Amino acid sequence: MSSLYIGIMSGTSLDGIDLVLVRFGPRPQDKLQPELLDSLLCPFSELLRQQLSQLAQSGPNELELMGQVEQQLALAYADAIKQLLAKAKVAAEQISAIGCHGQTIRHRPYAQFPFTYQIGDMFRLAAQTQIRVIADFRRKDMAYGGQGAPLVPAFHKAIFAKPDSYRAILNIGGIANITLLQPNMPVRGFDTGPGNGLMDNWIQQQGLGLYDKDGLYAASGVVQQDLLANLLSDPYFQLQGPKSTGREYFNPQWLAHKLLANTYAAADVQRTLTRFTAESIKIALVNEAIEELFVCGGGAYNKVLFSDLQQLLPAVRLQQTASLGIKADDVEAMAFAWLAYAYDHKIPGNIPEVTGARKAVVLGAEFTY
Ligand SMILES: Nc1ncnc2c1ncn2[C@@H]1O[C@H](COP(=O)(O)OP(=O)(O)OP(=O)(O)O)[C@@H](O)[C@H]1O
Ligand SMILES: CC(=O)N[C@H]1[C@@H]2OC[C@@H](O2)[C@@H](O)[C@@H]1O[C@H](C)C(=O)O
Question: Which helix H or strand E contains 154, and what residues bound it?
Answer without folding.
Answer: helix 152-160
